[in-house]
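The records we work with from here on pair a chain with its fold. Each token is a code from a learned vocabulary of local backbone shapes. A record is reproduced here so that you can trace the correspondence yourselves:

_____
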Amino acid sequence: MSRRFDCSDPEQRTVGLMEAAAAVRRGELVVLPTDTVYGIGADAFTPSAVTALLDTKGRGRGMPPPVLVGTVRAATALIDDMGPYGQDLIDAFWPGPLTLVCKANRALSWDLGDTKGTVAVRMPLHPVALDLLKETGPMAVSSANRSGAPAATTVEEAEEQLGDTVEVYLDGGKTTDNTPSTILDLTTAVPRMLRRGAIPIEKLRGIIGYVATDD
């Protein structure tokens, strides 16, 4: 049976983070607040947990989840090459709603799905998410909703869609912005925007110059 913890209460927050971290280590699923919408997360290095995450969302291996990290150091350990612009973007926008698609570290033993040798990484600007990620290490995290349904902006909306497939729900209140993160592909010579989101393209161009789009 799922458990929910109100992170506005200091005691519940402490216990909830401990229980969520333990659930992640056991290969179970948790729901956590982020700076965009609520996310459903699993240990990035437990393939069965990542499969359970995709199955719960109703999503196939062709749509691998992004990986959230609690520190920049954790992110760089996952990346083989972030290109000439990655560090400048991290310095400017992390923690925050910018997801960077980079070439993955080929030495890592994990299975996020059909990634074609890449990894989408983000460091969220939310204290509950960051505290959990610092305990668990990198987590595969996708929006806490069934595929095709609206993203959850409250823990109640997430629980209504995902139910007892999730072991622990961390309630951080209603998210302040339901705009998804901006996704930028750094695996090509010219950075390409894959999804428009919370960080507008003008701000990205202010840091790195030209950004390609499909428009």
Summary: DSSP finds seven helices and eleven strands in the chain. Residues 149 and 161 are 9 Å apart (CA to CA).
